[in-house]
Amino acid sequence: MTADVENLSFVHRFVPGEDASRAPLLLLHGTGGDENDLIALGRRVAPGAALLSPRGKVLEGGMPRFFRRIREGVFDEDDLRRRAAELADFIAEARAAYGLAAPVALGFSNGANIAAALLLLHPQALAGAVLLRPMAPLAHPPRPDLSGRPVLMLSGAMDPIVPEENAARLASELRAGGAEVRHEVLPASHGLSQADMTLAGAFLARLASA
Q1: Do residues 122 and 85 lie in contact, with contact meaning Cβ atoms separated by under 8 Å?
Q2: What GO molecular function annotations does the UniProt record carry, in alphabetical order (predicted)?
Q3: Distance CA 50, CA 188 (A)
Q4: Neighbours of 206 (CB within 10 A)
Q5: Rounded to whole angstroms, how far apart are CA atoms 205 and 12?
Q6: Kind and range of the H or E run holding 151
Q7: Helix 77-98 and helix 110-121, axial crossing angle in degrees, nearest 10
Q8: Which residues are catalytic?
């Protein structure tokens, strides 16, 4: 290791990988989660992958998040941009500390939104992403070079939080940068279903075999 892992800029958990064919997973929890929240999910959908799971630094009613929001569905974009930059810096620190390749983000809800912001604002930070119930994070996003970057988006047809149009707009924004986006709308609400696990696992297995 080339850095002091005790002094990285986010509280986090790291699980070393056992399968060198798999990209590391960057696990990004939803509102109220923490660095432990998605470890079991990561192990399930990407067996043997290294897992890097930071805790969001923003508190909303005592619940960790990755960036502030004004109200549900309305983001504080200045804070979002600042927090995305902090997270990109953490990824670089952790890669040096743990000897990791660029990770694939696996984010749920608020974690999916910060992952989408990373793709749009700091595309070098990620090798791809699985976005579970994401929203478009920026009103006027840049158009980064995402050529060939694999992205799986899984939305819920009965999601009361994420409008169908909003998720479709994010898929279009990522495709405009050249990302290879697969967007599935599942018969689900905002919570995760067995179909999410199955599709995410198959997507990550294909990346490992590519």
Answers
A1: yes
A2: hydrolase activity
A3: 29
A4: 11
A5: 25
A6: strand 150-156
A7: 80
A8: 109, 159, 190
Tokens of 188: 């689900």
- Radius of gyration in angstroms for the set of CA atoms belonging to the chain, rounded to a whole number: 16
DSSP state of 172: H
Confidence check: pLDDT of 35 > 60: yes
Rounded to whole angstroms, how far apart are CA atoms 66 and 56? 4
Sign of the CA dihedral with 71 first, then 73, 77, and 81 last: positive
Q: Which of 5-9, 101-105, 170-174, 182-186 has the lowest mean pLDDT?
A: 5-9
Alpha carbon distance 204, 130 (integer Å): 9
Q: Any idea which residue has 């109200």 for tokens? A: 71
> In this model, does residue 6 exceed pLDDT 90?
no
As a whole number of angstroms, the distance between CA 67 and CA 58 comes to 6
What is the tens place of the pLDDT at every residue in 149-205? 999 999 999 999 999 999 999 999 999 999 999 999 999 999 999 999 999 999 999
Cα–Cα distance, 27 to 103 (Å, whole number): 9
Containing H/E element for 95? helix 77-98
d(CA 106, CA 122): 16
Identify the CATH number of the domain defined by range 5-209. Answer: 3.40.50.1820
CA distance 13 to 11: 7
Q: What size, in residues, is the chain?
A: 210
* Mean pLDDT, rounded, for 61-81: 94
Element (H, E) at 166: helix 164-176
